[in-house]
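Lecture 7, part 2: worked example. A protein chain together with flavin-adenine dinucleotide.
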Amino acid sequence: MNKKSIVILGGGTAGWITANLMATHWADKGFDITLVESPDIGIIGVGEGSTPPLKGFMDTIGVQESEWMPECKATYKVGITFKDWATKPSFTQYVHPFLCQPDQFTAPAFFHNCHLRRNGVALEGHPDHFFLATELIKQKLAPITPPNFPFEINYGYHFDAGLLGNFLAKVAARKGVKYVQATVVEVVLNEQGNISVLKTAEGQSISADLYVDASGFRSQLLQQALKVPFISAAESLFNDSAVVFATEQSEQIEVQTISTALKYGWAWKIPLTHRNGNGYVYSSRFVDADKAETEFRAHLGLLDSDVAARHLKFKVGRATLHWAKNCLAVGLSQGFIEPLEATALDMVQETVVRFIETYNKGQFTDQYRDEFNARINSRFDAIRDYIVCHYRVTSRTDTDYWIENGRNEKISFSLRSILSSWVAGKNITDELERQKLDAYFPNVSWSCLLAGKGVYPNPDQLRSGNELANQYKIENIERYLKGCALNFKPHVQQLNELKR
Ligand SMILES: Cc1cc2nc3c(=O)[nH]c(=O)nc-3n(C[C@H](O)[C@H](O)[C@H](O)COP(=O)(O)OP(=O)(O)OC[C@H]3O[C@@H](n4cnc5c(N)ncnc54)[C@H](O)[C@@H]3O)c2cc1C
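Predicted complex, written out as structure tokens:
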């Protein structure tokens, strides 16, 4: 096999994750990898929360937490609290936890209670009683296990997106990735419709065997040059704008992202070691930018502050193909499902890892390209449905935004079937397995979402259960989780130890 040359267009998080993964996985192949980044077009600069697979990425590229976390002002994350997404008494907030090994003793109780409550038995069905992550969140404890606690804990991170990009650029350079600062102004295609040359404003002509489009929402190669169509998800996900502020960090750093529903969308709070990142994601169809900023300032207690806000626009949906001709798209250039579950970087990682696998399997040809595209499309659609579900089952009715979301019929058949199965009191694992969706968001995530928002029969329809129904005692579960939590250190202490 000839040595391949690869050009990655874009130096945002997606570009640098790709550069590191390709340089690591193909280290023995001696491929020539170059990342081209415009000195004038900035990165999007948001995207500061991750899911657990980011740990696997750092392990794969050979980077320790003590090396990257302090430099990127990173903190640990064990889940997301959703506040004010529902109005039902006792169900106005809940945690979507990252499941971990100690939960294997308590999750059966959650599923049991949840199942019977859906079938009319008065049992505790709120997810916050059952998972270790929720206890770590309450006590602000870091998810790092001591040697005498032999269970694996699943966790993600929060980090400064700009600093993470800089850090990953240094690691990629150590792995032999070349870096060119230039703005691509023309993309030349050959007779077969493949990309043959990128021409830059600085007068260079850059050629490669394979091009990676990591140019952000511009999608300069995939959507602009190769004209791959984009499928919008706007009819089921109304948000298209965000306003972003940084606020000061307190001494007790949270170990979670907080997502609070506001009048026309929701606000994130992402704790870093030196600041909190805050953003209000809203729909410009229901509120203008000034009004959204004022509402958000009031929410943050910043009405009298002159701290500057940054406004962003985004589009939700995905390209029909992620690998077209000799171009792979990663990150915002391939699509974006809004940031509610912080899944975008996970999608970048998944796209690149699956691409490497597929390209290897096809002996560096496009033999398995269709299979790859189908797989990535399924992932996008599964994530979209999980996020749409947050809006569809809302019990808020305070604005037209929430009313329209709650009665939106433009949801997929797949989501409709999951919801029907839940409401009918069936085992939704069967439905998720039937649709092959359990690999994306598993039963526990769907159950936390629906139970956490109180999608149960009304309390006056519930009857008390017999002894078998009441077999799990909440006080025993809480005692067990509190006992487990004794093994973990305060978040701030753990972060300080990393610096040493
Ligand atoms: C409001 C919001 C919140 C988000 N929150 C999260 C989150 O919590 N978690 C998460 O995982 N993701 C989140 N995301 C998504 C996340 O921000 C992106 O997935 C991530 O930052 C990767 O972006 P990117 O690298 O694809 O694009 P960008 O950061 O936009 O980078 C694009 C790069 O391409 C370069 N470029 C573009 N055109 C050219 C050209 N012609 N020539 C040369 N260079 C060019 C630019 O210079 C830049 O380096 C969020 C997104 C939004 C909009």
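The first helix runs from residue 13 to 25. The mean pLDDT is 96. Keep this in mind for problem set question 3.
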